[in-house]
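From the methods appendix. Each design record in this collection lists the tokenized structure first, followed by the designed amino acid sequence. Records were kept in a plain field format so they could be parsed without special tools. The example shown here is representative of the layout used throughout.

RECORD:
FOLD TOKENS (407 positions):
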């Protein structure tokens, strides 16, 4: 940890690390898991949602686009607006907004109501993710800051790979509305846990929106954000519509779809921890491997996924690759701006969620205009763009303390 971070933490009233410090980190990890799961629930529920609300699958995919766009705008905007507000209080308010949004989605009788609900989910998600990113280092001893931060980000990665199959299973068992109710219940658990287990967390220092945007003048941070944009847009252009793609290519039913998504999720958890260790040593090399795996896997799915067994292999490789995206790109961003973690994280969250929204929108346009399996080609082309940017752009070089802290 840098001297600036240490001193700012002290000025901000960093709590003395105690027995419940790691409990607070666990609350933050559960919070990031909850918000990202809430955002991505529609991925595994597009077919029944569209049927219930009377809309086509491409339009149903907009429920993901709307949430991502709102989170992309709210994340960098909320951090300056929060000013000197205690971060524990801010988190509780933002989680409450998330809970209300999920309850609204579960109740929504029509698409218009669903849109309003998903806007609320986007506000809560963008704020929680951006604020939580910089809090872990204040809850544990300095020597454990890297591990604590990685744990918080693992909530994002695990949600990305397990939240969708869990929601799909629940949707098949009890209906798609039950999945949103479960997300609201999980948010209520986070709210209570944050109020009880987090200490007071005064703001460290405020950064105006213009100050956060000025960070992009650093070519290392700018390159990292561009890589995030390409990777995440490409992934979600294909993954948002993975259920109808698998139904079309493999001819499998809802139960098998759930199994394939579970395979993807388990592989993704492994990918998160493998990539976390690799990114600490070389974020560029790790992202080159991830980009290569994703490009080849996504483009191969329509041609090799006709067999459920081969589809399972491809989904496992896809999960292994994408499971490492959030921790690798977040590591890149934090290494590029070690003295402005919260501001850089808000930009990261903004770009990440704008890319989710753009990917879902692009995939919907391709699916409705060309055909459902064409989304995999579009996704692979965009991920290839991330490969080129990673190879050609400037990358941060981890120093020895950063490597040991992240490993």
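DESIGN:
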């Amino acid at each position: 940890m840098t001297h600036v971070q240490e001193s700012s933490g002290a000025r901000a009233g960093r709590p003395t690390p105690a027995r419940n410090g790691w409990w607070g980190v666990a609350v933050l990890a559960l919070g990031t898991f909850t918000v990202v799961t809430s955002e991505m629930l529609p991925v595994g529920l597009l077919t029944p949602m569209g049927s219930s609300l009377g809309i086509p699958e491409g339009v149903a995919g907009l429920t993901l686009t709307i949430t991502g766009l709102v989170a992309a705008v709210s994340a960098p905007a909320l951090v300056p607006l929060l000013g000197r507000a205690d971060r524990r209080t801010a988190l509780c308010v933002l989680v409450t907004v998330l809970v209300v949004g999920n309850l609204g989605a579960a109740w929504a009788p029509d698409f218009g109501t669903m849109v309003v609900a998903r806007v609320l989910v986007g506000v809560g998600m963008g704020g929680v993710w951006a604020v939580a990113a910089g809090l872990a280092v204040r809850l544990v001893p300095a020597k454990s800051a890297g591990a604590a931060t990685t744990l918080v980000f693992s909530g994002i990665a695990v949600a990305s790979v397990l939240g969708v199959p869990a929601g799909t299973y629940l949707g098949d068992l009890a209906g798609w509305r039950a999945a949103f109710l479960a997300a609201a219940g999980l948010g209520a658990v986070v709210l209570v846990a944050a109020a009880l287990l987090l200490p007071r967390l005064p703001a460290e220092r405020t950064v105006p929106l213009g100050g956060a945007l000025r960070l992009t003048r650093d070519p290392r941070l700018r390159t990292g954000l561009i890589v995030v944009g390409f990777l995440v847009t490409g992934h979600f252009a294909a993954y948002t519509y993975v259920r109808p793609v698998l139904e079309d290519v493999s001819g499998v039913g809802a139960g098998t779809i759930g199994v394939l998504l579970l395979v993807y999720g388990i592989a993704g958890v492994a990918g998160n921890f493998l990539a976390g260790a690799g990114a600490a040593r070389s974020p560029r090399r790790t992202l080159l491997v991830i980009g290569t795996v994703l490009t080849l896997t996504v483009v191969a799915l329509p041609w090799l996924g006709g067999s459920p067994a081969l589809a399972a292999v491809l989904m496992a490789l896809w999960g292994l690759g994408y499971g490492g995206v959030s921790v690798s790109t977040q590591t890149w961003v934090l290494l590029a701006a070690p003295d402005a973690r919260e501001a850089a994280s808000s930009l990261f969250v903004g770009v990440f969620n704008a890319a989710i929204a753009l990917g879902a929108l692009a995939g919907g346009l391709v699916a409705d205009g060309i055909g459902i399996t064409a989304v995999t080609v579009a996704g692979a082309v965009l991920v290839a763009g991330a490969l080129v940017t990673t190879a050609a752009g400037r990358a941060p070089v981890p120093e020895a303390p950063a490597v040991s802290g992240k490993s």
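APPENDIX NOTE: The chain has a mean pLDDT of 82.
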